[in-house]
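User: Reviewer 2 asked us to show a designed sequence for the structure in our supplementary figure. I'm pasting the structure tokens here. Could you produce the per-position amino acids so we can include them in the response letter?
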């Protein structure tokens, strides 16, 4: 397990200027993912230990929103369901609100989108827009952020595809979400977005040292824009299934470089 931690930390270091852009020693997470699984154990528990961070342990999914208020995490490792739960709650509240409150909330989210576009696009909002945004950020968007405890700097999501509208919503309220992709057999990260290099609807770039290829049914890499099987090779790939050479043989093959394990 230690070699996997080192591999993941080194990989992250190659994707950001400072490895602590991901996790800082002052960070605190709220752990509700099972640490018996690779995602929660490697990305949250071991990476948190490696960076000197801390974690509060959730009492379980039924208490999750209350535990967020108690722990006030600065980073969060989650599955799409959590973010979508807040997304659905806010939009249900909008639809059930009075016309004035509905208009106010929609305006706040629209200005949040405008602020996000200005940030990534490198342009400046107009004076009136900025004043409106700062006011509505305080009285509307800040209250939505407080559902995550009020201190969340950024979050991570994996385990399933996160709907782009949910990631866009999180950007609108001021909490960037980094989506990643992988599986237990790849320790578990293959690709990931970083807090400063993200694109909603995509799962980011391969970790440095990890090569991702799209393979056809004939076992030959496909050209760009063709659908096939996602495969990868690098130091993150497992050695094999425990005492199960047949299962290992079924999923491990030789990479296009002729020597690596795919």
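Assistant: Here is a per-position design you can include in the supplement:
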């Amino acid at each position: 397990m230690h070699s996997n931690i080192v591999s993941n930390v080194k990989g992250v270091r190659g994707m950001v200027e400072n490895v602590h852009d991901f996790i800082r020693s002052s960070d605190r997470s709220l752990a509700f993912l099972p640490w018996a699984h690779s995602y929660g154990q490697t990305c949250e528990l071991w990476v948190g230990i490696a960076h000197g961070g801390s974690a509060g342990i959730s009492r379980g999914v039924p208490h999750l929103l209350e535990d967020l208020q108690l722990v006030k995490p600065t980073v969060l490792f989650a599955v799409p369901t959590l973010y979508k739960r807040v997304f659905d709650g806010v939009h249900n509240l909008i639809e059930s609100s009075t016309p004035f409150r509905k208009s106010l909330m929609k305006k706040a989210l629209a200005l949040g989108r405008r602020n996000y576009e200005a940030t990534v696009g490198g342009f400046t909002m107009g004076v009136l827009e900025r004043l409106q945004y700062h006011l509505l950020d305080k009285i509307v968007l800040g209250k939505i952020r407080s559902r995550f405890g009020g201190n969340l700097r950024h979050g991570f999501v994996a385990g399933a595809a996160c709907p782009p509208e949910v990631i866009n919503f999180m950007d609108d309220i001021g909490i960037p979400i980094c989506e990643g992709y992988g599986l237990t057999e790849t320790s578990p990260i293959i690709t990931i977005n970083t807090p400063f290099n993200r694109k909603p609807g995509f799962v980011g770039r391969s970790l440095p040292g990890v090569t991702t290829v799209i393979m056809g049914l004939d076992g030959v890499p496909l050209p760009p824009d063709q659908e096939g099987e996602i495969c990868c090779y690098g130091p993150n790939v497992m050695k094999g299934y425990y005492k199960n050479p047949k299962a290992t043989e079924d999923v491990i093959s030789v990479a296009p470089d002729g020597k690596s394990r795919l």
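For the response letter, you might also mention the following. DSSP finds eight helices and nine strands in the chain. Residues 1-11 have pLDDT under 50 and may be disordered.
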